[in-house]
Amino acid sequence: MTNLTIALQLYTIRDFTTTDLPGTLQKVKDMGYNAVELAGMYGLPAEKLRAELDTAGLTAFSAHVPFAQFEQDMQGTIAAYKLLGCKYVGIPILNKTDLPGCETWPAVREVIANAAALCKEAGMPLMYHNHAFEFEKLPNGNYILDEIFDSVPQLQAELDTGWITAAGECPVAYINKYSGRLPIVHLKDTVKVRDTYEDRPVGQGSQDMASILQAAKTAGAVGVVVELDRAVGMTSLEAAKESLEYLKGM
After folding, report:
1. Has domain 5-248 been given CATH number 3.20.20.150?
2. pLDDT tens digits for 104-121?
3. DSSP for 147-178?
4. CB-based contact 8:223 (threshold 8 Å)
5. pLDDT, tens digit, 9 for 90 and up, residues 68-109
6. Domain residues of the chain, as ranges?
7. Phi and psi at residue 65, in whole multiples of 5°?
8. Residue 191, CB half-sphere, CA atoms under 13 Å: how many?
9. pTM above 0.85?
10. How far apart are CA 6 and CA 34, in angstroms?
């Protein structure tokens, strides 16, 4: 784990942040995290959220920022996340009606390209975070995900290992594919239960995390983000803590 920042995606513990943001941020710090990836701003202005993070002793390493915010107020959105101290920002998802192959894609691509250029100027590169549905193939034979990155050269990748696995692809192979263009890897460990996948704390699922972490470092990643969409058999805070303990033990 040398030289890799370990951050917690706050979406993981949304059941706690929505009821007590200051107290939950302090719990995240107390369990050993120094950095987080934001999932929204909790209805706070950037200055107030930055103050809450500073009080807890946490840095906003990165943030997930909805595409609509860039579309509606690109300059203001970038300025807000820059004020929060983010090193990277990522579009967490696109509507399925806005993907390559859809009628709206040219306009969506233009917004993403403009945002990527402005984020780069701000010293805060823009990434795209995948799910499984971007691994559907287009008529040209490309996966939707690869078409997104091919269409916007300045856009960086934030690959999610759990969703890559759910799509039937190999996380290590995809990390290698985007070497040099992959600042952050989402560590989402999973197990297959019947016809679906369930999340587990990092290190407790079926993924080869040692190989994933080595590939991330070789590919030039600067950080990894712990994320569970849903904790099973424990609280989300417990899952976040067990994930960090595993990573620190490597």
Report:
1. yes
2. 999 999 999 999 999 999
3. HHHHH-TTPEEEEEHHHHHHTT--HHHHHHHT
4. no
5. 999 999 999 999 999 999 999 999 999 999 999 999 999 999
6. 5-248
7. -125, 120
8. 9
9. yes
10. 8
